[in-house]
């Protein structure tokens, strides 16, 4: 199996070749989401969208219903880059990639690297910085 999947790696970017349903080429029972498929930029945000899509698709397949809705990959790149705690730059998910200064990167990311939102996505309890401080002292 591993060597079969190795044949599905796109030599251009070392990522798995998938179809428009996020299934590995020629394997309808293997899905690829996140950084591993060659569909979209490597972004946690896109990985979440892909995971939601695959969950709904598996449900449809399990219920033996017809499915025709292909995954809609985002056409635009987006990125929040922090530079230390007080600076950064953001490119928004829009046509033309609207770029703004450090306000958004600082607000969304610099303080704690989106730990709280990531933890809550995985249903982990979010600790306040006071709790973390107490645990570490
Ligand atoms: C510095 C940096 C900043 C980023 N900033 C953003 C951002 O602002 N916004 C955004 O949307 N995305 C951002 N990303 C991208 C985002 O982190 C990735 O797209 C996302 O984490 C991909 O999720 P994944 O589950 O595919 O892979 P990962 O999160 O890399 O998870 C893969 C997991 O598999 C484990 N693993 C690997 N090999 C094996 C093995 N053989 N056996 C068992 N386990 C294994 C790894 O340890 C890891 O835990 C950033 C990435 C980096 C590096």
Automatic annotation (TrEMBL):
Keywords carried by this UniProt record: FAD, Flavoprotein, Oxidoreductase
Top-level division of the source organism's lineage: Eukaryota
Transmembrane segments: none
GO molecular function, one term: flavin adenine dinucleotide binding
Gene3D superfamilies per record: 3.50.50.100
Keyword Flavoprotein assigned: yes
An example Gene Ontology CC term for this record: cytoplasm
Protein name: FAD/NAD(P)-binding domain-containing protein
Origin species: Adineta ricciae
């Amino acid at each position: 199996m591993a060597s079969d999947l190795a044949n599905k790696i796109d030599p251009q970017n070392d990522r798995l070749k998938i179809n428009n349903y996020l299934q590995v080429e020629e394997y309808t029972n293997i899905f690829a989401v996140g950084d591993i498929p060659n569909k979209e930029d490597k972004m946690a945000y896109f990985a979440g969208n892909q995971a939601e899509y695959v969950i709904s698709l598996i449900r449809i397949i399990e219920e033996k219903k017809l499915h025709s809705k292909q995954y809609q990959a985002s056409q635009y790149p987006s990125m929040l880059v922090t530079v230390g705690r007080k600076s950064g730059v953001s490119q928004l998910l829009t046509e033309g990639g609207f770029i703004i200064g450090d306000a958004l990167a600082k607000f969304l990311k610099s303080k704690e690297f989106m730990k709280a939102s990531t933890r809550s996505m995985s249903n982990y309890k979010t600790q306040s910085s006071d709790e973390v401080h107490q645990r570490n002292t």
